[in-house]
Amino acid sequence: MRATLVRLFVVLIAFTAAGRGLSEEDNKEAKEDTDPIPDLLNAETFDSTLATGYHVVEFFSPYCPHCMHFKPTWEQFYRDNHRSLESENNLFLNQVDCISSGELCDREGIRYFPNIRFYSAGGKLLGNMGTNYARTAEGLGTFCDDQLSLWSGDEEESGSNGKSRGISSVDVTSLIDKKQLVRMLSGEGITKPMLISFWPSSDKQLKQEQFQGDHKSVDFFKNYPRCYSFRNLWNGAIKGLSQQISKDDISLGYFNCGSNPTLCDSLDIRNWDSQDQDNVVPQIMMILPSKDGGNRIVFNQPDSLTIQDISTWTKRLLDIYKFEDVKRDDIKKKMGIVSTLKSEPGDIPDYSEVSFVLLEDPETHVPEDDHVLRQLLQPIMDMRENVYLYRSTDKAAFLKLLKDQEMALENNYVNGKLDKESPDRAKFSEEMFAARTLSTLPMVICIKSNSLITPVLKSFSPRDTRNPTKVLNFIRENVSPVARPLTPRTMRTVFPHRLDATVADKSEKVLIALMDFKKPKDLPDVGYAISYIYHKFTYLKWKNQFSKLEKERNAKYSKVADLKEKDADYSDIMKTMSTKIPGVFEGMDNDLKIAYMDIERFEYFKERLGWGNIIPDSYKGGDFIVFSRFGNTFWDKDLNGEALNVGNSDSVVDVIAAASFAKLKGETISTPWFKMTLMTILAVVALVLGIRTIHKILRRRRLRANRVKGLGILGVDPDLQSSGLGKFE
């Protein structure tokens, strides 16, 4: 009876669980039924659906593997977001099947799948979801947010009747003819900077009245789809430059290379005459007002160009091209210059800006100094970093800033929670500060936002800072901010393909901080740890360099004393005294770069950067990994074998210092291909030899078995016993 009741109870539980599972499945299906994906658009419904509002449209093929992989992401994003997008932003999500609606996709110029586009009222194409957006729900959300922030609320973009009227705020781009451009390049007829885009079109293909035309009505845009996308990026960048345009700080134009091929070739406009019409992209150049000529600055644009790339580059150039005499407080307003830092966690600061200042003495200033700055302008603008270049005669204020920063660094910040009486506390060293900063003018200093570290290019004669190559190398050595995000764009800046010995050293390290952005409360601790590790290690590096300097000096003085004691020739003594001690503060030995990475993208970077022996699942947010920047070694344990994380920042510093100064052995990032090949060959050889050996052993056993088969107990065949033959004879 009891057993029967138990069986009934088990059956009841199983039935209830099955019912609950069925109910959950039914609820999911019911949710999908009540919130279905909208019908696909086709040639009959596309224009009427896009007549009003904003639309993000996915053009796909049901046979495309990427589309099939992206399908659940799109559907989940739709169900999670479409109501809020529709009610708050008048933005709708739609799809087009380019197999069943091939003519529509041809009309819209769809060349690849999936192709995700942003349209405004009347079907006006405003943007494409390029490769700079991840094909994830987060990437879709970011794309929608970016496009809405750029285009929504622009009353001029869409009329009350829902028809696109063009954007008058960007109708400031004028067609430049050959005569105008030649005059501007020679410094005539230009009173303010002009941003010019160079197009593969001819004057007939892209007239002034067609420049703001739709991709459906202008034949040139139909044949050159990336040029149309570029036109929308150009318009978006102009909106970002509205303040500069309203102040009359800049003018804008476009130039048709198709009607002026010789001039475009002489200006080295890349690929304007390429036969690959699907991939031709206009090039950008800024013409600056100058009577001396040589006044064009080329925009070295990335492959996946964004609106922000254009507007940020333009604003940066407008800010620095005049090289006006700036004061310390002027730069302080522009960027996060600090003379102290908080000794506790807080919001992650903006590290992005780096400024280089040429400090001059107005009494010794010569025109050659301005010439050096002009030579540096193009390479500075080629840099992807948010880097600026200024000149200043406010030398006293900047030198005071250097000393205040180093005193704050050594007396307070790097001491962390050490007791005030601790012998390990750092103290400001006047001698080390002088060795690092003492210089004649002009000199160059590097100011990094939210940092107490200010590198100095010391000058022992005016020739040092009037050498553009030397100054540029100093800039390239120190252009990295305190920390930067590790992204597909910054990946090869953080981890270059190869070592450039003119601006880097093989001993450099990279600290990767793993951040879990799903736990925002933990981020301030990681941000503070990044700053603390950077400043404390740099201080230890300075101490190490200063110790080397003192050792070199003492050796030199000792040698001079020995020569004097031996009554050596005066010329030998003077030669020894004039021996130059290497500038230990000028190199990149054991420099530290820091980047923070979203732990969700660990697998992506492992694959791209070849971290074969690193296991992402063994790390969590708040952990640190130290890499040899140009080697094959990493460290993820402290000196006691514990994981490096935000809770033991001093241990992270100790590991970096030991790896840099004491050659601490680390782990191998990945097994080199030649080593893997050799190991594979050896394994194959060993396997073949093993098989052959086993085969021989088995063969011998079979022969032995055959030979003794049928022998008697004594090993002799009874029939042969009388013959006198042996056992195997």
From TrEMBL:
Its transmembrane ranges are 673-694
Query: What is one Gene Ontology biological process annotated in the Swiss-Prot or TrEMBL record?
Result: protein folding
| GO CC terms of this entry | endoplasmic reticulum
Tell me which UniProt keywords the record has, alphabetically.
Answer: Membrane, Signal, Transmembrane, Transmembrane helix
Does the keyword field hold Cell inner membrane?
no
Specify whether Chaperone is a keyword of the entry: no
Q: Name one GO molecular function term.
A: protein disulfide isomerase activity
Q: Where is the Thioredoxin domain?
A: 11-149
One Pfam match: Thioredoxin
Look up the domain of life of the source.
Eukaryota
Signal peptide residues on this chain, from the entry's feature table: 1-23
Q: Which PROSITE patterns match?
A: THIOREDOXIN_1, THIOREDOXIN_2
Q: Which family does it belong to?
A: Belongs to the protein disulfide isomerase family.
Query: Know the name of this protein?
Result: DEKNAAC105058
Q: Which organism is it from?
A: Brettanomyces naardenensis (Yeast)
